[in-house]
Specification:
alpha/beta; 13 strands; 4-stranded mixed sheet; 11 helices; 5-stranded mixed sheet
Length: 301
């Protein structure tokens, strides 16, 4: 079995005809037919059934072609990297569930101005944000520190060879939908919120309160609902008059205009920043991303 045979088989499948495939491959139809027959004899089954109407891919052929495409694609990547010396710029961010971090990523991608890149954005649990930077899966991790979690998390950062760079400090706000009974109040207290469900992001096996994405994670909530998807929590917020606690930075482009932030009476300071490898210089794309994140300092409520 050769790479050329695999490419020929894929072309026949794509064009639906040995004749058409032969034209585009610049080989004769008899030669292509003979090559396919040799391949089928080697693997022990027919990839194509021939008829006067053309070809039909057999069930075994469908599976075979799936593997063949994977092999050819991977060969293309190998050749591009090691023979043609074509490289892609890579950049990855891991973040707690912040719409402003997503929006900053969007703006960064728009500015990159290069032809080939492979970027990734992981909106994930706190422990994964830390692990992804530690294990070089992400160059930058976006999260927050406060008086409650700082001691525990900074100890982890030091142990993993990471450093936290503060971007801005903000107060704590109540995030709810505009139709919520408390939405028109200028300030809301924790006591007033007791009758409504609080929403929090699930933190998996690292469910200690120090890893919580929401402020006042050690508060004794009467009603608590956990989830792992931002869109789902927004739906619950509207359907159940639920709420969550946030930085007050609103990104209507991503969450819509039906939600708002109201000052929390028992506000605490959040220090929002990013993690990186200690002593490591950010890539050009990383610097662009941090610059976009810093723009939100002016939007702190």
């Amino acid at each position: 079995m050769t790479l050329q045979q695999l490419k020929y088989a894929i072309s026949i499948a794509d064009y639906g005809s040995i004749n058409e495939a032969a034209k585009h491959l610049f080989v004769s139809q008899p030669s292509l037919s003979e090559t396919m027959k040799e391949l089928e004899n080697e693997i022990g089954f027919d990839v194509f059934l021939r008829s006067n109407r053309g070809i039909v891919i057999t069930p075994e052929g469908e599976e075979f072609l799936g593997y063949a495409r994977e092999v050819v694609d991977r060969y293309g990547l190998l050749r591009a990297k090691y023979i043609d010396k074509v490289t892609k710029e890579k950049f990855s961010v891991s973040t707690q569930h912040y719409t402003f971090a997503v929006k900053a990523f969007v703006e960064t991608v728009k500015q990159v101005g290069i032809d080939r890149y492979e970027f990734a954005l992981h909106e994930t649990m706190t422990a994964d944000v830390i692990d992804n930077v530690k294990n070089f899966k992400s160059e930058i991790g976006v999260l927050y520190l406060n008086d409650f979690n700082e001691k525990v998390l900074t100890k982890l950062f030091k142990e993993y060879g990471l450093e936290f760079v503060e971007l801005f400090t903000c107060d704590t706000y109540v995030y709810l939908w505009s139709g919520h009974p408390l939405a028109k109040k200028p300030v809301i207290s924790m006591r007033e919120l007791d009758d409504y469900p609080c929403l929090a992001f699930e933190q998996g096996k690292n469910n200690a309160v120090y890893f919580a994405e929401e402020m006042k994670s050690n508060y004794e909530y009467k009603r608590l609902i956990k989830g792992n998807d931002r869109a789902t929590l927004l739906n619950l917020m509207k359907g159940l008059n639920a709420y969550t606690l946030c930085s007050g930075i609103i990104c209507e482009e991503l969450n819509g205009s039906e939600y708002l932030a109201v000052s929390l009476y028992e506000s605490e300071k959040m220090r929002i920043g990013y993690l990186k490898r200690k002593g490591a210089k950010l890539s050009h794309t990383g610097e662009l991303y941090v610059k976009e994140l810093r723009r939100y300092k002016d939007q702190v409520m």
